[in-house]
Design a protein that fits this description.
GO terms for molecular function: NAD binding; UDP-glucose 6-dehydrogenase activity. This is UDP-glucose 6-dehydrogenase. It is an enzyme of class 1 (oxidoreductase). The protein is 41% helix and 14% strand. The chain has 435 residues and is an alpha/beta fold. The strands form two sheets. The chain has an eight-stranded mixed beta sheet with strand order 3-2-1-4-5-6-7-8, with helices on both faces. A six-stranded parallel beta sheet has the order 11-10-9-12-13-14. Bound molecules: 1,4-dihydronicotinamide adenine dinucleotide and uridine-5'-diphosphate-glucuronic acid (UGA). Uridine-5'-diphosphate-glucuronic acid binds next to α8. 1,4-dihydronicotinamide adenine dinucleotide binds next to α1 and α4.
């Protein structure tokens, strides 16, 4: 099939490269010329394991990029993979999506009516229920097009994670096709047929309505975020009783109804999506007159975990004027992404206390330096610990598990672990956040 994808960022580029690898002819459309040039030169514009190889193999061939929306005229379907950031009040900002939809409409309207099937426009981005219906389809139609004759719309949300995006896309737990027209459903089946054939096992397809598909994405992300907040709540109780929350989590995870994943308690969830998507669906629900109590509590608890981490440190040392090591800056291991990382409230809390911060991350240091140019950055965890009067662990990088004699170099070896990555050992004052 000939496929176009508007937006060549984390999702757009990953999906495009994987679809090209599965045999489709794919073009991405982006306003950023550097991204377009990179893809055409066979270079991935973003860092994801396995993506460099795919873009190197197909870039400039079955995978192309362009700044020209007219490219969609040579394709059967267009996916919208544009950003859906938050407004100041947490609600979803649809300006990029509406601009993209309008440009698609203008391109389609400029084409000769060939009598072919209507062009399918698929919302890949995460959008609150009814966005495709109420905000995107009308923008496409604004160019003088008729829905059902000139174009169709559908929702096909994406569940890939950063750091494992290629593997997640190629072997998804499910595919969700939200449509209101059999022709759209059939086109999505054609698009994913090679993926389902190549995938490791059976890939279930959920055929549903457009708004249901949009909501499934929020339900998925907010369920997982809330699962982490719940295990953090349970972990905080465990800490009060001197109980090991990880032993408790391992045991409850054996119950199939609970499941073993996403039970790692600690300093909380961050990243480009859980925080923004939770805020967006809470704001959208409130707009409709419903206040989601559990989700609001999940956010509140997530905001409190970094404060609990710092108050554990306060229990052992007055950090004012002292050198304090912050180990881990990325929002999770395996990425240099610092969007909504828990390291930010930790750093700000330490700054408020007047601490002298020395931070270390294997890959995210440069991104954090842009945000906090004035704090000290160490070249290694070992260097960060030298002469420190306390250390806090924010990201569960494997390399932190190997730290041992390095703690002997601390002035006062107080270690507060927000991710259960350091073993308790003689010679250090160790506090686990939930154990
Ligand atoms: N990053 C992730 O792991 C996941 C993200 N999502 C969702 O996917 C959507 C996209 O997210 P990302 O790929 O992370 O965003 P991103 O910010 O990495 O990429 C968006 C791209 O769109 C381009 N762009 C902006 N306006 C444009 C326009 N008018 N026309 C053409 N290109 C334009 C930008 O230059 C950028 O390259 C969001 O709704 C996000 O919530 C869903 C699942 C996973
Ligand atoms: O919509 C999205 O963008 C994506 O959001 C998440 O993916 P991602 O943000 O890449 O990262 P996760 O691996 O889910 O981790 C999110 C946060 O939760 C934290 N976490 C995760 C698991 C756990 O047990 N405990 C825990 O604190 C991580 O440290 C991290 O800060 C979802 O897992 C993806 O399915 C989804 O597509």
């Amino acid at each position: 099939m000939n496929v176009s994808i508007v937006g060549s960022g984390y999702v757009g580029t990953t999906v495009a490269a994987c679809l090209a690898d599965l045999g489709h002819e794919v073009v991405t459309i982006d306003i950023d010329e550097d991204i377009v040039d990179a893809v055409n030169d066979g270079e991935s514009p973003i860092h994801e394991p396995g993506l460099d190889e795919l873009v190197a193999e197909h870039g400039g061939g079955r995978l192309r990029a362009s700044t020209d929306y007219d490219e969609i005229l040579n394709t059967e379907l267009t996916m919208l993979a544009l950003p859906t950031p938050s407004n100041d009040d947490g609600s979803i900002d649809l300006q990029f999506m509406e601009a993209g939809a309008a440009s698609i409409g203008e391109a389609l309207a400029g084409a000769q009516n060939t009598g072919e099937d209507p062009h399918l426009v698929v919302t890949k981005s995460t959008v609150v229920p009814n966005t495709t219906e109420d905000r995107l389809a009308p923008r496409i139609a604004d160019a003088g097009l008729e829905r059902g004759t000139d174009f169709l719309v559908a929702s096909n949300p994406e569940f890939q994670r950063e750091g494992t995006a290629v593997a997640d896309f190629l072997n998804p737990d499910k595919l969700v096709f939200g449509t209101d027209d059999d022709r759209a459903t059939a086109t999505l089946h054609d698009l994913y047929a090679p993926l389902r054939e190549a995938a490791d096992g059976d890939v279930p397809v959920v055929e549903t309505g457009i708004a249901e598909a949009e909501m499934i994405k929020y339900a998925n992300n907010t369920f997982l975020a809330t699962k982490i907040s719940l295990i953090n709540d349970i972990g905080n109780i465990c800490k009060e009783f001197g109980v090991d929350a990880y032993e408790v989590a391992d045991a409850i995870g054996l119950d199939d109804r609970i499941g073993e994943q996403f039970l790692r308690s600690g300093v909380g969830w961050g990243g480009s999506c859980f925080p923004k998507d939770t805020d967006a669906i809470i704001a959208a629900a409130r707009d409709e007159g419903y206040d989601p109590a559990v989700l609001s509590a999940a956010v509140e608890l997530n905001d409190d975990q970094p404060k609990r981490l710092l108050s554990l440190l306060d229990d052992h040392t007055d950090v004012s004027g002292k050198r304090i090591a912050v180990l881990g800056l990325a929002f999770k291991p395996g990425t240099d992404d610092i969007r909504n990382t828990r390291a930010v409230p930790v750093i700000e809390g330490l700054q408020e206390r007047g601490a002298d911060i020395v931070a270390y991350d294997p890959v995210a240091t440069e991104n954090m330096r842009e945000r906090y140019p004035d704090i000290e950055y160490a070249d290694s965890a070992a260097a960060a610990l030298v002469d420190a009067s306390g250390a806090v662990i924010v990201t569960d990088w494997d390399e932190f598990a190997a730290l041992d004699a390095e703690f002997d170099e601390m002035d006062d070896p107080v270690v507060v672990d927000g991710r259960r990555i350091i073993d308790r050992r003689d010679g250090i004052t160790y506090e686990g956040l939930t154990w």
